[in-house]
Amino acid sequence: MDTTYRVQMEGIYKSYKGVHALTDVSFAVKPGEIHALVGENGAGKSTLMKVLSGAIAADKGSIKIDGVERNITSPRISRDLGISIIYQEFMLAPHLTVAENIYIDRLVGKNKLMINWKKLKKDSHDLLEKLGFSEIDPDEKVGNLSVAYQQVVEICKSLSRDARVLVLDEPSAVLTFTEIQKLFKLIRQLKEQGIAIVYISHRMDEIFDLCDTVTVLKDGHFVNEFRIDEIDKKSLIYQMVGRELSQLFPKRNAKIGETILKAEHLKAGRMVNDVSFNVHKGEVLGFSGLVGAGRTETMRSLFGADKLDSGSITYKGQKILFKDPHAAVRHGVGLLSEDRKQQGIVIERTIRENTTLTSLGKVSKFGIINHKKDKEFTRDILARLTTKYGDMEDSVSCLSGGNQQKVSLAKWLAADCEVIILDEPTRGVDVGAKAEIYKNINDLAEAGVAVIMVSSEMEEVINMCDRVVVMRQGKVVGELEKKDMNDKNIIGLSMGVM
Ligand SMILES: Nc1ncnc2c1ncn2[C@@H]1O[C@H](COP(=O)(O)OP(=O)(O)OP(=O)(O)O)[C@@H](O)[C@H]1O
C-alpha cells in the first residue's frame, strides 16, 4: 500500500449536458502538503473537488485515499474518510447560531438524548479561539455575521470533524489582509499536523507565498504540476491562460472632473457611524478597511438598499435620498454587491435574463423585449469580460463561480450608470479576466463615470484607485492620495495604528 499520497485522483471524467467539465484529469496531494489548484474560471477546479467530496459522481476515474481505492458515492463517505471541503458559497444555516452551525450534524452526542448546550458553546468558543477569532460569539446567529466571519465558521466546522484533507475553494476572497495572514498562519499550523491541504485561488501572490506545489487545469484538462520553487509567476500565468499577460493593470487616461456625489455624516444601523466622502466624475475612488469596518453597509445605505438613519447625499448638485435601489438606478447610480449569491444574481433565472436585467430599456420597445436584440446585447456584453458559458438560455447556476461574478458585473457595465459602486468586483475572477475588468473600469472612468471601488485586495486598490478612503469601525479614518497609497499607510489607518 503506497501511503506517499493522501489523495490520488486518476483519469477523472465529468460532463454536464455535453459540457466536458473534466477530461482525464489526475491530481495527487501528500500529507502535510499545501497544494494549489489553479486555472481560469470554468477550468474545472470546483468540479474536481466536488467529485472528491462525493457531491457529484464522476463519469469515470479512480480515487485512492492513503493508497486505498475508494468509491466515494456520497458526501458522508467522503467526510468519514476525513475529507472536508469549504466551497466559495458557504453551506451555513443563517438562522442558526455559530455553535449550532459548527456542530450541525452532531448536535446530540453519541448515546445521548439531549443537546448539551454548555459543551456546544464551549467547544465552539475553543475552536474560534484557536483560529484567533475569539471575538465571534458562539450564540450569534450566522446570518448576522459578515461574510468573512461566516468563512471562519465554515473552517471551524471542518476542523471540528478532524479533517485529514482540507480543501479551501478561494478562502481568501472574502477576507481582508489581516484575516488572510491569520488564515495563512492557521493553514501552516494544519500542514505541520500532517493535514493535506488543497488551496484553490486566483491570487498569484498567495500561491507563491503559501503553497508547496501547484497543479494547473485548463478547459477541463490537466496541464501540468510544478513544485512552487521551480516556476515563476509569469510562467504560471502563461500555463493557465495560454498567453502572456502584458499588463494586469492597464493605464488610464481619465480626466478627473467635478464632484458628482457627496455624502455627509451618513449614519445607518450599528455599522455606519458618521461617514463623509465625495467622488468626482472620471475618478476611481477606493474604499479600504478591515472586515466589519462598515464599507459595504455604507454603500448599501447610500444606494437605498438599507435604511439611512441620518446624513445627507448631494448628487449632481441636488440633495437627494434614494428611497430604494430602483430609485438609485433610475438616477444612474449602480451597485455591484459583494454577496453574489444573495444579491448579485437571480440564481433561478437564465444567463441572458441576468445580464440584461438592468438594461431592459435598451432591448425593448413599448415594453416588449426584442429577443434578437436581447441576445446580441447579452453576447456582446459577456464577451467584453471573456465570460465562459455554454448556452445563454441556461440557468446562471450552471456557471462556475467566477463566470457568475462576470455576469453580475456585466449587467452593471451595461447599465449606463453615472456613479457605479463596485463592492469587491474581482472576487473569484481569474487573472486574465481581472485584466479585462480593470480595462472596463478604466473605460468607464474615461467616459466620465465616477467609480467607487470597495476592495480588500491591496494590489488592486493601489494600482486602480486615484484616491482611497479608509474606514475603521464605521467611520472614515483617513483619505490617501495616489502618492501616499501604499500597504503600510492603508493597513496602518485600517488598524488604527496611524
Ligand atoms: N451544474 C452544472 N451544470 C452545467 N455545467 C456546469 C455545472 N457545474 C459546472 N459546470 C460547468 O463545468 C465547467 C467547470 O466548472 P467549475 O465550476 O469546475 O470551474 P472552476 O475552475 O471551479 O471555475 P471558477 O474559477 O470560476 O470557480 C464550467 O464550464 C461550468 O460552466
Task: Give a short summary of the structure.
The chain has 498 residues and is α/β, with parallel strands linked by helices. It has helices at 45-53, 75-80, 98-102, 117-130, 147-160, 177-192, 204-210, 233-241, 295-302, 325-330, 340-344, 351-356, 371-384, 401-413, 431-446, 458-464, 487-495, and strands at 7-16, 19-29, 34-38, 60-65, 68-70, 83-86, 165-169, 196-200, 213-218, 221-227, 259-268, 272-280, 284-289, 310-315, 318-320, 333-336, 364-365, 368-369, 419-423, 450-454, 467-472, 475-481. The chain binds adenosine-5'-triphosphate.
Q: Structural class, judged by helices and strands?
A: alpha/beta
Instruction: Kindly provide the radius of gyration, computed on alpha-carbon positions and rounded to a whole number of angstroms.
Output: 23 Å
Backbone shape: globular
Mean pLDDT: 89
Give the CA-CA distance, first to last residue.
Answer: 57 Å
Write out the strand line-up for the largest beta sheet, numbering strands in chain order.
Answer: 6-7-8-3-9-10
Q: Estimate what percentage of residues fall within beta strands.
A: 25-35%
| Poorly predicted runs | none
Topology (elements, then pairings):
Blueprint: E1 7-16, E2 19-29, E3 34-38, H1 45-53, E4 60-65, E5 68-70, H2 75-80, E6 83-86, H3 98-102, H4 117-130, H5 147-160, E7 165-169, H6 177-192, E8 196-200, H7 204-210, E9 213-218, E10 221-227, H8 233-241, E11 259-268, E12 272-280, E13 284-289, H9 295-302, E14 310-315, E15 318-320, H10 325-330, E16 333-336, H11 340-344, H12 351-356, E17 364-365, E18 368-369, H13 371-384, H14 401-413, E19 419-423, H15 431-446, E20 450-454, H16 458-464, E21 467-472, E22 475-481, H17 487-495
Parallel strand pairs: 3-8, 3-9, 6-7, 7-8, 13-20, 13-21, 16-19, 19-20
Antiparallel strand pairs: 1-2, 1-4, 4-5, 9-10, 11-12, 11-14, 14-15, 17-18, 21-22
